Amino acid sequence: MEQTEKIIINKTKNWIKDVVIGLNFCPFARKPYTADRIEYRVINDADFQTALVALRVMCLNLNEQPEVETALIILPEGFSDFEEYLDLVFEAEELIIDEGFEGTYQVASFHPNYVFADSDDNDPANYTNRSPYPMLHILRENLLEIAVDNHPDPESIPDQNIAKAKSLGLEYFKKMRFD
Q1: Contacts of 81 (CB under 8 A, 6+ apart)
Q2: Among 83, 142, 170, 174, whose Cα sits 20 to 30 Å from the Cα of 102?
Q3: Burial of residue 62, with CB atoms counted within 10 A of its CB: 0-12 exposed, 13-18 middle, 19 or more buried
């Protein structure tokens, strides 16, 4: 693995540890993170075709690696434009259906400039889905269902995350670093 790729993965791991787990934005993330059961794949100079091929290959690899609980396709070069990234997410979801992975895998989305619909760019709530790089998060649906079934109130997670982000405020997140 080249040095740049290691840096990108380390920043991503720090973001997971400090934000996703540290702020409890995802109560299901700690287990695969601490057990080192997350696959990280960096795709440089990504375009739609490269990113979608990487997604397809990752799903096929996950079929062969049941010990890997979840995977992140990290796109450090390409898809910096959030609207273009949303187009990629749409295409990724279509690929999941077209390739017969529906019901097995789903895609969650994270982007450095993530903005929820009907939200202002400066709304701290956007940081619940902001990451150091654009990425596609591939989740195993069966493990997600188990986690949700074992959570006392999964429907409250998004509202709790928004409230937490707003209470921390925009300046808190602007100061946060992922290295």
Answers
A1: none
A2: 83
A3: buried
Each residue's pLDDT tens digit, 118-132: 899 999 999 999 999
Query: Which domains are present in the chain?
Result: 3-175 (3.30.110.10)
User: What's the token pair of residue 2?
Assistant: 């080249």
Nearest to 74 by CA among 157, 158, 122, 15: 15
Question: Tokens in use for 71?
Answer: 């995977």
Q: Give the residues of the chain that fall short of pLDDT 50.
A: none
- Nearest CA-CA partner of 22 in 148, 138, 176, 154: 176
pTM (two decimals)? 0.94
